[in-house]
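PROTEIN SPECIFICATION:
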Amino acid sequence: MTDPQLDRLYERVLVLRCQTGDEAAFAEIVARYTPRLRLYLRQMLGGDAHTADDALQDVWLDVFRALGRLDDAGAFAAWLYRIARDRAYRILRRRGIVTMTTMDDASQVTAAANANGGGAGAGASAADDALLNGEAAALVHASLDRLPHDQREVLLLRFIEEMSYEQIASAVGCGVGTVRSRLHYAKRALRREIERNDST
């Protein structure tokens, strides 16, 4: 078994232990996910650290209450991010911020899915990897904050959380084709924002 496989197996065991009431296992799960979840919530909530920390506490409370009802321990990460996403969207709705953009043109969705390999589990290109490293990080984060929430969300889940298309689909509650489409348009929008911010 490789390290990622062992890590996934260990996480499943931790989740099962949590479901039996093991407080140490829950504390370890919280410690494993809190930094990444905090970043995700902060990005989803427009950089507001205080609101993100409050939301993070609420997310862990929701997880604690509902963990016994999780049927598949292997789906924990997607389930956790679904709870975090729902909490962030609830906060944004209370603020009166529209959280979803719509794409009515079905041909755009199909074209985007085909452009992304139509089923291949494509990762980031070398250019995307280079862009996300080093001194460009601040530019990327500033540009990311300007994207619509649904686009920001899929980029965070794919490239920061390194989730598969299937995991993202489960976390956001849509089909894999929709995830591919959102990623395609999100990368395009991020590229435009970066170019706009870089030229100023």
